[in-house]
From TrEMBL:
InterPro entries: Methyltransf_11, SAM-dependent_MTases_sf. GO terms for biological process: methylation. It comes from Bosea vestrisii. It is an enzyme of class 2 (transferase). This is Class I SAM-dependent methyltransferase.
Amino acid sequence: MEASEVAACWEANAETWTRHARAGYDLYRDAQNTPAFFAHLPDIDGLDGLDIGCGEGSNTRKLAEAGASVTAIDIAPTFIRHAQEAEAASPLGISYRVADGMALPFADASFDFATAFMSLMDMPHQDRVLAEAKRVLKPSGFLQFSILHPCFATPGRKVMRDEAGNVLGIEVREYFRVGDGEIESWRFGAAPAEEKARVAPFRVPRFHRTMSDWINLLVATGFRIEHMHEPGVDAQTARAVPYLADTYVAPLFLHMRVRKPVR
Ligand SMILES: C[S@@+](CC[C@H](N)C(=O)[O-])C[C@H]1O[C@@H](n2cnc3c(N)ncnc32)[C@H](O)[C@@H]1O
């Protein structure tokens, strides 16, 4: 799929996505993915950071609240408009702009760190976005990103449940098939039924890569792998919050922090 088609899909998703995410329907993000990401983020107080694929800016604002001076980009103008409106309403000093993560409009060595929350697996040329992230980082700067877990969130992933709804396992399909923008249609699962019925589903182009593809890409780009994390819930949380129970069996997300060598 062409990058322009990918951008068009995200622009079409952006209005409902923003409204639903801000209503709290992106429960995996709010209850698990973002808290885990920040728990493993180094101290960013006083640093210059770039958020790649910022969406409506919820996680970007958390970076700014942690003391960083943040610039953020997204391919979809509607996401950037909503993020800028939130900035105007409660200023945190964040600079937003529409841009493509695969061609970043910033000079070499501009940032101390970069983040990409759940956006890299949505880009057709991950080698380019990784090379661009490395280029705009200062020497010894880091990139921390989250993606759908390459092993357990393959295209067509299904959660297997018994009749009582208890999670039995995760069905993994097509792990080895390299993604080329196959569209996945879905809504945030936590949205109320009447709200789901009222909106068109998101159309999300996927560019699935295997675990070894990701590791080899990072190494080939010249990053040093520093930290990995696979968020999941314990048995007690799985019982208390059934929505997240699949992540007791296997992780839905993979977090990585990689660093640009000094030379
Ligand atoms: C799953 S959303 C995540 C949004 C946000 N980071 C968050 O955590 O809520 C993926 C985001 O990546 C953006 N995106 C996709 N392709 C992009 C590209 N080539 N350059 C910049 N952003 C892109 C989409 O517009 C969307 O906002």
